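Section 5.1 Outputs to date
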Amino acid sequence: MQRLKTLVLLVTAGLAACSSGRTVREGYVTTDDSVRLYYRIVGDGPETVVIPVGLYLEDLLAPLARPGRRLVFYDPRHRGRSGRGDLAHASLDRQLTDLEQLRTALGIERMAVIGWSGYGMEMAVYSIRHPTRVTRLVQVAPVPPAARIFRAAGGDQRATRMDTAALGALDRRFRAGEFANDGGGFCRARNRLTGPSNFADTTLAARVPDPCRWENEWPANLGPYFAAFLPSLGDYDWRDEIASVAIPRLVIHGNEDGIPLAGARAWVAGFPTARLLVLSPAGHFPFLKRPDEFFPAVDRFLAGDWPPNAKAVPLTPF
């Protein structure tokens, strides 16, 4: 493996102060295959919390900022502000190698990790492979730990909440060339149709940061990446391996999420160091719908205690 290179490009001149007075530092780490990973560090202090897909979560999880805590947001390859690599190498293994190289380049010895949606699973697998580097893991609205649980629960139910006729009409307009010079416009038009499916309260969709600012998120770019990445997961089942990870894990799931609650329960069932907090009503963005419960729960967990409403789940055969 070629020597890991670190390129730090400050988007602002030097250190900038955010509105709360906390320092903000931005830059890039270059991986061993020459892909630049964007990161944004908010705050300073001995406690480090690493959070992927900053393009969505930098603003939404900003309430987690505290004195003595630094939040390290980053965009995985092919996402947001990060660079793209060879799609032939797109895989879960590559994603986890990227995180390890980011950690090394930023000089992080140990860290808590927060993974949302598909990254809830990815951060669990990172913890399996690098258990000495992770202090605590928060899995927010994670996909299930086994593909067969996902299938048995009916898969991602968000697709059933969308106006498929309107989506079909939009896609026909795209194929006819209407958005030939407006990839961002097509991205936003599609998100207006798909975004509300993430919520029990669909008005909250307007509060999600616009991912279409970044060309990586345009369907013409994101679609091929996921088509290359998802097969690398195979018929996965991480339950036996996560049993060997002793770090505390908090799983937070919205009761009305299209990602089945059965999967969140399976991440916790029978594991003495894991707890499940179900928020209702809440969909795939529980921090938007139930911030009054979400943020105190995560803060308490990061401080070393279980949130009072987080429960153990007994093991049941599946």
